[in-house]
Amino acid sequence: MKSRVAQVVIGLGIAAVFVALSLRQVNVADVATELRSISLWWIIPYFFVVLLSHLARAERWKLLLDDEADMKNSRMVMMSAIMYGYITNIVVPRAGEVFRAVYAGRHSGIQSTKLFGTIILERIIDVFMMLVMLLITFMIIVRDPNVLNQIFGTDGAFYIQQLTSATGLSIIALGLILTLSILWYLRNKHQTQSGSDEVELTPDHEIHPIGFKNKLSGWIKNFFRGVISIRKLKNWPLFVVYTLAIWMCYILTSLLPFYAFGVFSGFGLEEAFVITVVGAVGVALPSPGGIGTYHYMVQTGLVVLYSISPITALSYATIGHFINIMCLIVISIVLFLMNTLYQKRNPA
């Protein structure tokens, strides 16, 4: 309980710091004035894009559990667990994943420990996607020397341009190959020396390191086992489609609010892609629902990369974030009512 309280306090502290940073160069009254003048027609398609992103995530999660014959009312359970998890994260940062696994476990007949493992696997995949998108974003930024100079200074921009040249990228690629080769060699050598020492998973999915003096080795082995378990996936193409659909929806949720402000005329998918990545970095920080961190990162990205005024940039971040949270709340309430009605009609 104390740890949860500490999480809330720390999260609120982080949110407060980033809100203050966002407001350094703007007047709240100016932001309010700008928000009152924006167009709102885009909110309707925005809602359906948000809904589609969560449906795709629920379907992708279900693919990881298709071998479970005892799943009951699976789509409703998966979707409800995801939405309730997001709402939980708004209150207690990082607690939503645990709540999601526990809720789905109680209503699906699957052990929550296994469900939590699939959630971790999902997070790994999302992090991988983020890294790929970060790399693409970096390559987009590198094309503009003025932006590089503004972010990194003249000397920093020069070195980055050298690194991203054909020669620089070749050296980086060779370095990565060499590093991976060394890690692979050390891993095989460690397995050979370990002999029959293994980390076993008991039927109730509790982790028991056997033969290792250091429990950390057991956790690392089980981590890699969880990652490798994705090989059991029966429908890889559909899994990839759902993953791409999720991120495409996220990009669209960055694109649609552009239409609320006249200054963004001419902005398209490329700019939305970059802002999605910048905003995702903010959401990854342990602030309740990305409050403050998302606003600051998006505001900074728009100001530095596209020379948008701090007031308009913060207004864009504020309205986009607010509508997203409202969509989460509305969808969660609808699911709660549907679940309540279902339970009344189908008592246990």
Strand count, sense and barrel status of the largest sheet are: 2 strands, antiparallel
Distance between the termini: 31 Å
Shape: globular
Secondary structure tally: strands: 2
Instruction: Classify the beta-strand content into a percent band.
Output: under 5%
Order of helices and strands: HHHHHHHHEEHHHHH
Number of helices: 13
| Portion of residues within helices | over 70%
Task: Average the pLDDT over all residues and give the rounded result.
Answer: 80
Q: How many domains would you count in the coordinates?
A: 1
The class by helix and strand makeup works out as mainly alpha
Strand order in the largest sheet? 1-2
Cα radius of gyration in angstroms:
23 Å
Unreliable stretches, pLDDT < 50, 5 or more residues?
Answer: 195-213
Please tag this protein with its features.
mainly alpha; 2 strands; two-stranded antiparallel ribbon; 348 residues
Account of the 3D structure:
- The protein is mainly alpha-helical and 348 residues long.
- 75% of the residues lie in helices and 2% in strands.
- It has helices spanning 2-22, 28-36, 43-63, 74-91, 96-108, 112-142, 145-163, 166-194, 215-228, 236-255, 269-284, 293-306, 310-345; strands at residues 198-201, 207-210.
- Strands 1-2 form a two-stranded antiparallel ribbon.
- Helix 4 packs antiparallel against helix 5, helix 4 crosses helix 13 and helix 11 (269-284) packs antiparallel against helix 12 (293-306).
- The two termini are 31 Å apart.
Secondary structure: elements and pairs:
Blueprint: H1 2-22, H2 28-36, H3 43-63, H4 74-91, H5 96-108, H6 112-142, H7 145-163, H8 166-194, E1 198-201, E2 207-210, H9 215-228, H10 236-255, H11 269-284, H12 293-306, H13 310-345
Helix pairs in contact: 1-12, 2-13, 3-4, 3-10, 3-13, 4-5, 4-13, 5-6, 6-11, 10-11, 11-12, 12-13
